[in-house]
Amino acid sequence: MERNEHLDHPDHLDHLDHLEHLDKHLDKHLIDELAQVARETIRDELREQSRKQRRTAMLYAASGAVAFYAGAAAALAVGLALGAGLPDWVAALITAAVLGVVAYLLRGAAKPHASRPKSPGRVIGGTAPAGPPGGTGLPYPPMPPVAPGAGLPEPGAAPRADDIDPEGPHHRL
Question: Alpha helix (H) ranges present in 9-157?
């Protein structure tokens, strides 16, 4: 009995309320601190990733610029080689025409064509997928064993005895 009286004592209830308030305060403080640590960690990780991506982008840009000048030098060499046997303006015109054709072919290779089916499982030069992307059923509808309409009498003609399938559905018109 003494113990229950002690628990019901007002000072003890105040102490419990104080502990509950302190617990809530500590929980909120802990949550705020964890959120702050998570924000800083994510910010640092994003900063590191963006730094690496900027470096990669700069290297790709430099590579593209150098490749551009290499292509220009190659075009100049072709023009000069052609110029040895042709007038200079004809050599330059032929070089420009060849570069134009190459540019057109590259553009065509990059652009999707309407004639190409856009199938997620299709690989250019590969074979048809074994099944649909969902993985259920057949990749193509099944083919009937006989072509539709084969073996049927002409319209208006009476059916022959061997045209009637005893296993098939029986419909009366």
Answer: 10-83, 88-110
> What is the pLDDT at residue 70?
92
**Residue 78 neighbours by CB under 8 Å, 6+ apart:** 95, 98
Judge contact between 139 and 128, C-beta under 8 A.
yes
Cα dihedral 120, 121, 126, 129 in deg (nearest 10)? -140
Rounded to whole angstroms, the Cα distance separating 85 from 82 reads 6
- Whether residue 142 is predicted with pLDDT greater than 60 in this model: the reply is yes
38 by Cβ neighbours in 10 Å (0-12 / 13-18 / 19+) ranks as exposed
Read off the pLDDT of residues 86-97 as tens digits, 9 standing for 90 and up: 998 898 899 899
What amino acid occupies position 55? R
Q: Chain-centre distance of CA 62, in angstroms?
A: 28
Q: Is the pTM for the entire model greater than 0.70?
A: no
- Cβ count near 95 (within 10 Å): 20
Higher pLDDT, 77 or 25: 77
d(C-alpha 145, C-alpha 160), whole Å:
21
31 has pLDDT over 90: no
